[in-house]
Amino acid sequence: MTNNFDFNEIMNKFINESRKYKSREQSWNHCYEKFQEVRKNYATYEAIPSDLRKNLCLNLAFYLASWGMYRGSSFLLEFDYTVHDEIIKILWKKEYANLWTAKIEIIEAKQVADICKEIFQAYKEEKKKRDGYKTLPKTTLTLISKILIGTMACLPAYDRFFIDGLKKYNNYYKQIFTQTNFDDFFYRKYDVSNKLEKLVNELKSFWNTLQSSSEKLKFSQPEMKLIDMYFWTLGNSKLQ
Q1: Which residues, other chains included, contact 58 with Cβ-Cβ below 8 Å and sequence gap of 6+?
Q2: Tens digit of each residue's pLDDT (9 = 90 or more) over 103-115
């Protein structure tokens, strides 16, 4: 009998759940695989045909909807799917090229923080094109992190279950953020960039420890996706 934190056991629970007929986890697979395919074939955003960019936007939008990002409290409900086009442009920037890798050791924490900030700013600029934009709901870290796990797989989805999983794994763990809105006040008061870097470095440390102490892992998903699934499942009481 394995313990409650056994990585392979937790992964198998998640994978078994995701294998249900046409499960919402397949939305992640479709989105991630499409972005990876296009990334391999087009090195720059400008080279991607217009119709294909729209296809990427649709894949991203439906994946985000499957995972709760189009609920009534989301600003995305006020826009069509092409609002994500500016995000795709950011993902294809050459300074973020190494974030597409599946290897955690290559991912740089500062780059993750930088791309999160750019995505936030891009959505903010899109909102500004609308009358009364200040009344629109804030852009959250949950949304931004779900975009990154669904496209590059360089940051886990920072949602309630993931946070609960971290707390269960380490009962003295302190939540990295006290809130997840990326407004200007939040940047000034809570120093988001440094805390994002801390989170990524802690997850890299977790992965290195796991690799040195665990039996060989036999999963095909990107390493950061495995971390995402592990803590999400650990925090989801229905799967425990």
Answers
A1: 81
A2: 888 999 999 989 9
